[in-house]
UniProtKB/TrEMBL annotation:
PANTHER family: TESTICULAR SOLUBLE ADENYLYL CYCLASE, TRANSCRIPTIONAL ACTIVATOR DOMAIN
GO molecular function ontology, one term from the record: DNA binding
GO-annotated biological processes: regulation of DNA-templated transcription
Keyword hit for Nucleotide-binding: yes
The protein, known as: DNA-binding CsgD family transcriptional regulator
Length: 888
């Protein structure tokens, strides 16, 4: 039994018990060095019983080797890779260097990790423990974090131990258990007897309940080495205690320990070869082993504690460390040789720089972008020429961006920018820095960087210039900066490309639309959208956004659906939230609220996992709007206010559009018409489909306040937009606006006719409700009731409670004393994710197929179906065929 850890043991054993019952769980154990994290992991492994156990650890000297820790953890399970979906199996093989990497997205490795853990758990409960999480290489840490946030019903318990004071494993959103020091009684019991009273008290005071410190400081005290001269952090005291034990060895023993500490793999043969090169006898290692500082088993050298390894490395001089790395370089090959040579270097060395550059490319080929960035950065430091240094720093910046290390990417880009006068390199760096600025939610800075970068290559690379200016357009609008808009237009006029070039036309069309020059801009977008989009992710990406801006509902739905599917199929997980964001919003416009909620929720989780705060805010805005429509005021305000705060702090008024609209919707449903109108009329200028979609709510608020004239300017803009777009759904909304403004039955009937041509269940119900209210106020109650009844039924089906209640109140006022109780549509009792799973299952997809599609495990999919079938009144997949899935 661990001393003084009863509650912690109970927590761990509960996790194991849950895994035995098929419920997965994750626990991150945090604490200072020596506090007992590893001991708690050891206890978990012993308590696992007949459960499978996987063990892995971060290694300080392997933090720049991509997927090293993940390989260590999963290596016993590699014979099960063929059971995974082929893209996932290929991703893991590529990550571990077993085959060429076929994917371009590092997060697919995380999904494959989840699937492999779930596959192992098919044999019974599984415990996976990872020690020293602070030293996980970034690629392994990201993969494990991605998998851990998706563990649900697999029967997997994952324990990760990491230090409080260091990064490595991202713990945000995961359950944590912090280990503190032992209390006085437990500390005394662990210390035992044998020390003089005064030394015993000193050790208890200095150790402060840290178990490792109690053990090691008592050894130091027994040897007369306990130094109490001045305050030191506990870790430093432990390092001193370990250094004292090393100093007690004969001189060759300390040096061979330093060699072992500097060696990446702990391979005995490599340690002995390097020691021989340095003139250190191999027998010296036996001294350290006899002293209990290391163990030598199976051809590996292992230190008793990581701090002992650090102490051994620091115990020799810097010159001795360089000599050790030079000797180790002669005993290894490949990436390890390159890194040992780099650590042995005392100044610029182009040969070593080239070796590190090759190592960087190998890391990149395995999606180890953090390691790639580090190798390129060190290669730059060893470069003999400024131009090569700039090129390597630029490559490091791009790799850091791919690794999701935005701050590091920006810093490396800044350094490279100061060193280069090459326009093409400058432009590439500008795109990296702009992408970082966008991810962080600063469209103004993103636009500024893109314009400056485009200007540098305007004469030599007009196509890159046009592409960068196109990317700048939405950022300029989001920033609300007319001066930058003019600057971009003048630059676009300068480049040597014909006006009809697609990139030029698209860039100019977006700029004109955002400047409210619809008549000039919309035809350019229309021409671009008439082109057949390439059936590739980049092609669909380029087309989806303008389709979204133009409000081409059918085209946007088709493109975004295909784009999301492509991202899933090709493992482009980082791009998936972008596709889901656009898809979810387009589904809101189309009235597919439940689909929109499912896609927005999934996109939000992935955006959080992949570190894309700008998309996080956008997806939260979608969910805030849906919460307002459903009457969940608390959830709406929580999400919307976070978006408004983000928009204000990042000087991005356009980001506030969706959160403000959501709060206005809430105001409208709760009878605060003036507040709703104020919010809607404070929206930023510049138009798109947003203008047409928001105007009906603005009109309703203005009419209910008796001030219809306040909405006329917005209606005129919507008229221009609708006429140019030719979109039936937009014409239906505009007809409702005219009906409210002109008190016109003709426009109501026209709106309903248009709704029938372009179904939008929610908007059609809003029109039915407005028309029914209009008829009732004119005492035409019998005519009003069918419209109000249809509206009420539609709102009930959609789950938009406030609107259903309003329709019910109007029905009662029209003379319908009792409302027919409709049984809830089967789909309304399903969660958003259950609905997704059921729809995919109805296509004949297996649990494994559905799991790959939704980035979950097959066991979790099975659990969703287990819960969904009773809600739907069925007991098997075959019965799904009799359900009307379009109404779910």
């Amino acid at each position: 039994m661990l001393q003084g850890r009863l509650e912690e043991i109970k927590t761990v054993e509960t996790l194991l018990s849950d895994a035995r019952s098929g419920v997965s769980g994750v626990l991150v154990i945090k604490g200072d060095p020596g506090v007992g994290k590893s001991a708690l992991l050891d206890h978990a492994a012993r308590a696992a019983g007949d459960a499978g156990v996987l063990r892995g650890a971060g290694v300080e000297t392997e933090v720049e080797l991509p997927f090293a820790a993940l390989h260590l953890l999963l290596s016993p399970a590699l014979d099960r890779l063929d059971a995974l979906p082929a893209p996932q199996a290929a991703a893991l093989r590529g990550a571990f260097g077993l085959a060429p990497m076929e994917t371009a997205d590092r997060f697919l490795v995380g999904l494959a990790t989840l699937s492999l853990l779930a596959e192992l758990a098919e044999d019974g409960p599984l415990l996976a423990v990872v020690d020293d999480g602070q030293w996980l290489d970034q690629a392994s840490a990201a993969a494990l974090a991605f998998a851990s946030r998706r563990l649900r019903s697999e029967g997997v318990a994952l324990l990760v131990a990491t230090r409080d004071d260091q990064g490595g494993f991202p713990t945000t959103g995961l359950p944590e258990l912090r280990l503190g020091g032992l209390d006085r009684d437990d500390a005394e019991r662990l210390l035992g007897e044998g020390l003089a009273a005064h030394l015993r008290e000193q050790v208890l005071t200095e150790a402060d309940g840290n178990p490792l410190a109690l053990i090691e400081l008592s050894k130091a005290a027994s040897g007369g080495e306990l130094d109490l001269a001045g305050p030191l952090p506990l870790t430093d005291r432990l390092m001193n205690a370990f250094a004292g034990q090393i100093r007690r060895l004969a001189e060759p023993g300390g040096r061979i320990l330093a060699v072992a500490a500097a060696e990446d793999t702990g391979a005995l043969g490599v340690v002995l070869a390097a020691a021989a090169e340095l003139g250190i006898p191999g027998e010296a290692l036996e001294q350290a082993e006899v002293a209990g500082l290391v163990t030598v088993t199976g051809g590996d050298v292992r230190f008793r504690h990581p701090l002992l390894r650090s102490a051994a490395y620091q115990a020799v001089t810097s010159a001795q460390r360089r000599a050790i790395h030079a000797a180790l370089a002669g005993a290894v090959s490949g990436d390890r040789r390159a890194w040992h040579l780099a650590l042995a270097a005392t100044g610029p060395d182009e040969h070593i720089a080239e070796s590190l550059e090759e190592s960087a490319e190998r890391s990149g080929a395995r999606l180890g972008f953090a390691a790639m960035a580090t190798a390129y950065e060190r290669s730059a430091q060893l470069s003999a020429e400024q131009s090569r240094m700039a090129r390597r720093l630029a490559a490091a910046a791009m790799a850091a961006k791919e690794a999701g290390q935005s701050g590091r990417a920006a810093e490396l880009s800044e350094r490279a920018t100061r060193l280069t006068d090459d326009p093409a390199t400058f432009a590439r760096l500008a795109e990296v820095r702009a992408a970082v600025a966008y991810d962080e939610g600063s469209p103004r800075r993103a636009a500024r960087l893109l314009i400056d970068g485009a200007a540098r290559v305007a004469e030599t690379d007009p196509r890159t210039t046009a592409r960068m200016l196109m990317a700048a357009s939405p950022n300029i609008w989001a920033a609300g900066d007319p001066a930058m808009d003019t600057e971009a237009e003048l630059l676009l006029d300068r480049i040597d490309l014909p006006a009809e070039d697609p990139l030029v036309a698209l860039s100019r069309g977006l700029r004109l639309i955002y400047a409210d020059d619809l008549e000039a801009g919309y035809p350019l977008l229309s021409d671009f959208l008439r082109r057949t989009p390439p059936a590739t992710v980049p092609g669909r990406l380029m087309t989806a956004y303008p389709a979204f801006v133009a409000g081409r509902l059918d085209q946007a739905l088709e493109l975004c659906t295909a784009l999301a599917s492509d991202c899933r199929t090709e493992g482009r997980i980082r791009l998936l939230p972008f596709a889901l964001n656009h898809l979810a919003y387009t589904q809101v416009i189309a009235g597919h609220h439940r689909d929109s909620h499912a896609n927005a929720a999934e996109g939000l989780q992935i955006a959080l996992d992949t570190g894309q705060p700008h998309l996080v805010v956008g997806l939260q805005g979608q969910l805030a709007w849906l919460a307002a429509a459903e009457g969940d005021a608390g959830r709406c305000r929580e999400l919307a206010e976070a978006g408004l705060a983000f928009a204000e702090s990042h000087r991005s008024p356009a980001v506030a559009l969706l959160p403000a609209w959501s709060l206005a919707m809430l105001d409208l449903t709760e009878g605060r018409d003036q507040a709703a109108l104020d919010r809607l009329q404070a929206r930023p200028g510049g138009t798109s489909h947003f203008g047409t979609r928001i105007v009906p709510d603005e009109v309703e608020a203005a009419v209910r306040l008796g001030t219809p004239e306040l909405a006329r300017e917005s209606v005129e803009l919507a008229e221009r937009w609708t006429a140019l777009s030719g979109e039936t759904w937009a014409a239906a909304l505009l007809a409702r606006c005219h009906a409210l403004l002109q008190d016109s039955e003709e426009h109501f009937t026209r709106a309903l006719e248009l709704h029938r041509s372009a179904p939008q269940p929610y908007e059609q119900a809003r029109t039915l409700l407005a028309y029914g209210e209009w008829l009732r106020r004119r005492r035409r109650k019998a005519e009003a009731r069918p419209h109000l009844r249809q509206a009420h039924e539609a709102f009930e089906r959609l789950g938009t409670r406030p609107w259903a209640e309003r329709a019910a109140a109007e029905l009662r006022a029209s003379g319908e004393a009792t409302l027919a109780r409709r049984s809830a549509a089967p789909g309304t009792v399903l969660t958003a994710q259950e609905l997704q799973v059921v729809r995919l299952a109805a296509t004949g997809a297996t649990n494994r197929d559905i799991a790959a599609h939704l980035l979950l495990s097959p066991r979790t999919i099975g659990q969703h179906l287990y819960k969904a079938f009773p809600k739907l009144g069925i007991s098997s997949r075959t019965e799904l065929a009799r359900l009307d899935l379009d109404r779910l």
